[in-house]
Specification:
This protein has 555 residues and is α/β, with parallel strands linked by helices. It contains 17 helices and 22 strands.
């Protein structure tokens, strides 16, 4: 959808829209401009036949919202829906195939009047040369490559409140290749203790045979490798009301208020904290009846979100006296999903290996220690050079280095956001270009979170890195973050922009990326002499969309 004008939509009589959803129900970056223009122009789509396939993740509230919005908009503009909106979860293939099998014949069957043969000159077209695609390794999320971790060590200094690790995977005979900016998919497994406790709490036999999407296996193995059990899903909580009989049992209800605080510098990795509310039951909440409470959770979206945010299935079986057969239970579970991590190495610098910078997430809730599923799996369960781990490459088309190696680049990557920029630096050194490299990095303290210090100092000493600007938030009374450093160096940043420099950002989308984005607009106002509107247009449209030299890897 990138670069496609809304005015052209009415020219086509058959349109298929396939879209993911970004963030909290937002359009993906390459669809945002077309969506905004369509909503602004509102072109008549009478005579246009369409269908939408939306791909999302049911663990998010705004599931497939971008596709839903396109579906509603096309109807509003008078288009004819040929096949109903198809929503697809992360494991999208079955629903995708169902949609394709319906929509292609339906579109082919539509009779469309074509212009007469004399209405336009016939132009002879020569077939374009087709570049032979590179051979693919064949490894994917569905078929991950079994490899081993060769290194897994802590990057933090003594006394740090964080645990950030450098993790190296061998690529062996996989024939997998990658470029800087790509991500590595890692297939996790659930902690054995969690599996044991769940089976014990539910009263099941761990050797009971069940059938899953991966075939026939024991219940223990299925819960270990096939399904997400580290956090309860909404579908399961909503099923409770069908399992509970109102019997007047008294239960104790504790209410919590939730908040989140990043503990790794990686916005995707969050730890939780509780603050107790008043202990008496509020009038709007259910009383002691378990069925009434289950119904309340099923029918109140906010209450449901608060409940599942801090609980897994063990907690639910503790809260409610319910019985599920193993088959009933796994039918309600989400399939285990791989996790993606920004690659922190250049394949040219480390042939045969791929390296990550990972913030390990650990926290305690409801009397048990917990953590991020994949990060704790890599840190605690996987044995270096012994355990097999499934991995695959997830290439990027957008978060890439400029083709011209003389182009200057500015990189902003606090915390584990430094990962792709370590890779960028290794690649720029290997390529030997003349472009300058400026890295903005920040974290809590230089004493405990100065990741890759020796490498960075070597790049500076050898002239490969033009400047290294830090923002240590806890090393002084006033908290300083990367956006503050950008503003301090605003005049020089603007000079780099005027010379055509690329700007990259990696890390937390919710706070850091927004603050950095705002800082760039302020720099354009102050040092570029632009109005608010012109500065916003320059940063968001000219640099990001048209010139594609403002690139983000945020989560």
């Amino acid at each position: 959808m990138d670069g496609y004008p809304a005015s052209e939509l009415s020219r086509y009589k058959r349109i298929l829209i396939i879209t993911s959803t970004w963030g909290e129900g937002e359009m993906p970056d390459n669809a945002a401009d077309l969506w905004d223009e369509t909503c602004s122009v509102n072109p008549s789509l009478s005579g246009v036949n369409y269908s939408v396939c939306a791909i999302g993740d049911t663990s998010y509230d705004e599931y497939c919202q971008a596709g839903i919005d396109w579906d509603n908009k096309f109807q509003e503009l008078g288009a004819t829906k040929v096949v109903d909106l198809q929503t697809c979860d992360v494991d999208y293939e079955p629903e995708w195939k169902l949609w394709v099998d319906k929509v292609i014949p339906a579109m082919v069957a539509i009779q469309i009047s074509l212009p007469s043969e004399t209405s336009a000159p016939v132009v002879e077209e020569k077939p374009a040369a087709v570049e032979k695609p590179k051979a693919k390794s064949g490894w994917s999320a569905k078929n991950p490559y079994p490899t081993k971790i060769t290194e897994c060590y802590v990057l933090n200094g003594e006394g740090s409140r964080k645990e950030t690790r450098h993790i190296v995977f061998a690529l062996g005979d996989s024939k997998m290749d990658y470029k800087v900016g790509d991500a590595l998919g890692v297939v996790p497994e659930n902690p054995p203790l969690t599996v044991d406790l769940l089976i014990e709490k539910a009263g099941w036999d761990q050797d009971h045979i069940v059938h899953t999407h991966n075939g026939e296996r024991t219940l223990w193995e299925a819960l270990k490798k096939d399904f997400e059990i580290h956090r309860v899903n909404k579908k399961f909580v909503k099923s409770l009301q069908e399992k509970i009989i109102s019997n007047g049992l008294r239960i104790k209800v504790s209410l919590i208020e939730r908040f989140r605080e990043s503990v790794s510098g990686n916005g995707a990795m969050l730890a939780a904290g509780d603050s107790m509310m008043q202990t008496e039951l509020l009038p709007s909440l259910p009383g002691d009846d378990p069925k009434e409470r289950a119904e309340h959770l099923a029918n109140d979206a906010d209450a449901l979100e608060d409940y599942i945010w801090s609980r897994d299935y063990i907690d639910v079986f503790s809260d409610f006296s319910v019985n599920y057969t193993p088959e009933e239970f796994i039918d309600l579970l989400d399939k285990l999903k791989p996790r993606l991590y920004s690659i922190a190495s250049s394949h040219d610098a480390h042939p045969g290996f791929v390296e990550l910078t990972v913030g390990i997430v650990r926290y305690s809730h409801h009397g048990r220690d917990r953590g991020g599923l994949c990060t704790v799996y890599m840190a605690d369960e996987v044995e270096v050079n012994k355990s097999d781990v499934g991995v695959f490459m997830s290439p990027t088309k957008s978060f890439v280095l400029p083709e011209d190696k003389s182009t200057d680049i500015i990189m902003v990557g606090p915390g584990t956001g430094i990962a792709p920029f370590r890779a960028f630096m290794e690649q720029r050194v290997h390529d030997g270009g003349s472009g300058k490299n400026w890295l903005f990095f920040g974290d809590q303290s230089s004493k405990t979170e100065f990741y890759y210090k020796e490498e960075i100092e070597n790049w500076l000493d050898e002239g490969h890195m033009y400047r290294f600007t830090t923002a240590w938030s806890r090393d002084q009374e006033e908290k300083i973050y990367v956006q503050h450093r950008l503003k301090e160096h605003g005049a020089e940043v603007w000079e780099w922009f005027e010379r055509g420099a690329y700007f990259y950002i990696c890390g937390d989308k919710q706070y850091m990326a927004k603050d950095v984005h705002r800082a760039l607009i302020n720099i354009a106002i102050e040092h570029g002499g632009m109005s608010e509107a012109d500065a916003t247009h320059f940063i968001e449209k000219t640099m990001m969309k048209e010139q594609k030299r403002y690139l983000r890897d945020v989560y």
